Amino acid sequence: MAQIHPKTTPIYQTSVFTFEDLNDLELYFEQPDQKYMYSRYGNPNSDELAEEVNKLEEGEGAVATSSGMSAILTAVLTYCQSGDHLLCAEEIYGGSAALLSQELTRMGIAVSYVPSQELYTWMGM
Q1: Exposed, middle or buried, 69 (CB in 10 Å: 0-12/13-18/19+)?
Q2: 106 within some domain
Q3: Which of 19, 30, 91, 113 could in theory staple to 25 by disulfide, Cβ–Cβ 3.0 to 4.6 A?
Q4: Within a domain: residue 37?
Q5: Domain range holding 29?
Q6: What is the C-alpha to C-alpha distance for residues 39 and 47, in angstroms, rounded to an integer?
Q7: Is residue 75 classed as helix, strand or coil in its secondary structure?
């Protein structure tokens, strides 16, 4: 069968990718950034999106996540570690507040919620 070479990246609607054999699967676990396994961990479309956003924003890197909740957690964990204290707007999505309060507290990161009317005071503006 002839190889197909599309001009643009096709939309990958699959949730999982296949491996040639067990050796190929083992290689994935040694070098996961070389191949795709499960779309929530990454796929060609999300990688291409992240690359384009990075170019547009003239950044040093970008990540496209599978949900807003994972984007929030990724951003926080990029900058916070055990012993840090995170200030957050009080009026946020309930699921996000639960994620921050429960998971970050478990990881040793304190979270305080600031009412909207006090945000500029806290930010020194």
Answers
A1: middle
A2: yes
A3: 19
A4: yes
A5: 14-64
A6: 11
A7: helix
Domains contained in the chain, number: 2
> Contact at 8 Å (CB) between 114 and 89?
yes
* Residues 86, 120 share a domain: yes
* Structure tokens, 118: 């006090």
* Model confidence band, residue 4 (pLDDT cutoffs 50, 70, 90): confident
* pLDDT computed for residue 123 by the predictor: 64
Length of the chain: 125
Tell me the helices (H) and strands (E) count for the chain, helix number first. 6, 2
Measured distance CA(112)–CA(125) in Å, rounded: 19
79-88 in b/e form (b: 16+ CB < 10 A) is: ebeeeeeeeb
Confidence class for position 122, pLDDT limits 50, 70, 90: low
Note whether 85 and 120 are same-domain residues: yes
